[in-house]
UniProtKB/TrEMBL annotation:
Top EC category: oxidoreductase
Keywords: Oxidoreductase
Gene encoding the protein: fabG3
Naturally occurring in which organism (per UniProt): Pseudoroseomonas cervicalis ATCC 49957
Pfam family, one: adh_short_C2
EC number: 1.1.1.100
Entry protein name: Oxidoreductase, short chain dehydrogenase/reductase family protein
GO MF terms held by the record: 3-oxoacyl-[acyl-carrier-protein] reductase (NADPH) activity
Length: 262
């Protein structure tokens, strides 16, 4: 399906691998010019070259760290300079360490509040004036199914991502009449480095093997397996297109049917 995205420009954060890379791949295949961010220039340059081979008319890598708020301003400005503007912003970053609610520490809340809440909002605010001037824009946030159904052992993630749910819903209503949509993509269990980290932590805590944990969790997913990153990105490309212009302020769950609530 041609989503009509040719000529659009996107900044995809955390795009060197995993789910961010999957969205970047899907946008590149639709002819979107892309700036990708991450922490290592060498890996970003490799990704940029691969995105151009997939169909992106231009792709550039811009290193930035969400742990530093001031780097969000530099990232936004560099993406605008490289692409001539940013129409689609994909907010994506690594997740916090596993812990229970009783184990949460104030210092961890402060550290990850910067990465999960402050930095994404800051870069969105930096890029929104251009979107509003053009009367077109897309803000896509890669979140978690914990935004809908809190996940055991991920108390930090559950707690802080709830702030983004409130922000996204509020912002979407404020911008709805200006041609700008704001949506969240909530992945379930996908075969990514992040999932490998949480599995390793769970294995250390329970004494079970990673293979046993994967089997248990796969059995709890109606589709019966973990998702592949390539199955995630196309939803992001669709939500970035005019075909999804009437969809905003929502959490879109991509989880093989694992979330039980309706």
């Amino acid at each position: 399906m041609d989503l009509g995205l040719q000529g659009r420009r996107a900044l995809v954060m955390g795009a060197s691998k995993g789910l961010g890379r999957s969205i970047a791949d899907a946008l590149a295949a639709e002819g979107v010019a892309i700036a990708v961010s991450g922490r290592e220039q060498a890996s970003l340059d490799r990704v940029a070259a691969e995105l151009e081979s997939l169909g992106a008319p231009k792709a550039v890598g811009i290193p930035a760290d969400v742990a530093e708020g001031s780097q969000m301003d530099k990232l936004a400005d560099a993406a605008v300079a490289a692409l001539g503007g940013v129409d689609i912003l994909v907010l994506n970053h690594g997740g916090p360490p596993t812990c229970t609610a009783l184990e949460m520490k104030q210092e961890d809340l402060i550290t990850w509040f910067q990465r999960i809440v402050l930095s994404p909002i800051r870069i969105a605010n930096r890029l929104l004036p251009g979107m509003r001037e053009r009367k077109w824009g897309r803000i896509l946030t890669v979140g978690s199914t914990g935004m809908v159904q809190p996940l055991p052992g991920l108390a930090l993630s559950n707690t802080l991502r709830a702030s983004i749910v409130g922000w996204n819903k509020t912002l979407s209503a404020e911008l709805a009449g200006e041609g700008i949509t704001c949506n969240i993509l909530a992945p379930g269990a996908f075969a990514t480095d992040r999932t490998a980290e949480t599995l390793a932590a769970a294995a250390a805590k329970t004494g079970k093997s990673i293979e046993a944990l994967v089997a248990e969790r796969s059995a709890a997913i109606p589709i019966g397996r973990y998702g592949e990153p390539k199955e995630f990105g196309p939803m992001g490309a669709f939500l970035a297109s005019d075909r999804a212009a009437y969809t905003t302020g929502r959490i879109h769950i991509i989880d093989g049917g694992a979330v039980r609530c309706v």
